[in-house]
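Hi again,

Forgot to attach this to my earlier email, sorry! This is the prediction with 1,6-di-O-phosphono-D-fructose bound. I've pasted everything inline since the attachment limit keeps bouncing my files.
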Amino acid sequence: MDAYQNVGIKRRLRRFFRRDGRALIFAMDHGFEHGPTDFEEHWKHVNPRIIIKKVMRAGIDGVMMLPGLARIAGNDVKPDRGLMIKLTSKTNLRPKDDQLLQSQLGYVEDAIKLGADAIAATVYWGSPQEDVMMRQFAEIASYAHDLGFPVVQFAYPRGPYINEKYGKKEDYRVVMYGARAAVESGADMIKTYWTGSRETFAKVVDAAAGVPVLLSGGAKTENPVDFLKVVYDVVEAGGAGAVVGRNIFQRENPEPLIKALIRIIHRNEEPEEAAKAEGLL
Ligand SMILES: O=C(COP(=O)(O)O)[C@@H](O)[C@H](O)[C@H](O)COP(=O)(O)O
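Structure tokens for the complex follow:
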């Protein structure tokens, strides 16, 4: 028999992942991490209740938010979809030297009170502050697991040594190192960067040894098909889907893009085919 908390972890993960083991999750932490200017393209989306209603209608599998935003809009996330609460963050206002640290801004209890189905935290692997984020993650994961909650790691390699040795943080060797570090530190789901090709992303997936790896969306692409192609390659590489912010909320009407992403992630449709079906081409 499973321990009680293992049942809780499995049940809660199912609110994000469909039977195919894949998920499309909407990210809405940009007002804090990047600043409200991220919403200026479509200013009404700065209101989480407006954009979350749109993504729900389009069929998104889950939503990720910081605790205070979940207080405002968590209830708009339908009960059969996953609510992920992230407990660490940083503002863009910090001095440059402190940008490589994510600080804890809430507690596991807060996420539980808010109805979370999963609890997330970032680790910048390779940062001079890596030790602080490892400890934060360990404390959050240990407590959340005890209470039956899955833990998501935003496993982002970032730091001076990485740039020196690998040239860029998206080099697959360092992305797969971050994914592996996430697995070995106890993550149940991993969010990380695109490595630029299907072949290299497949190595990241292998390094994660069965823990689902989701793409971190990145900046909005002018042509939506370009983004669909990346997500297609992610799932072809064995990735478990995507966590997407700007490519959704920086479009006035994000519903066709979300529906096209769902076709790719859950129905294995090709990018152009999915784009045509949703009127994007
Ligand atoms: O991880 C984040 C920020 O990463 P960043 O420091 O901008 O590389 C989150 O703010 C976002 O949730 C994540 O980037 C997903 O949103 P998009 O990249 O798709 O906008």
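Strands lie at 23-27, 62-65, 82-86, 88-89, 103-104, 118-125, 151-157, 189-192, 213-216, 241-244. The chain has a mean pLDDT of 98.

That should be everything now.

G.
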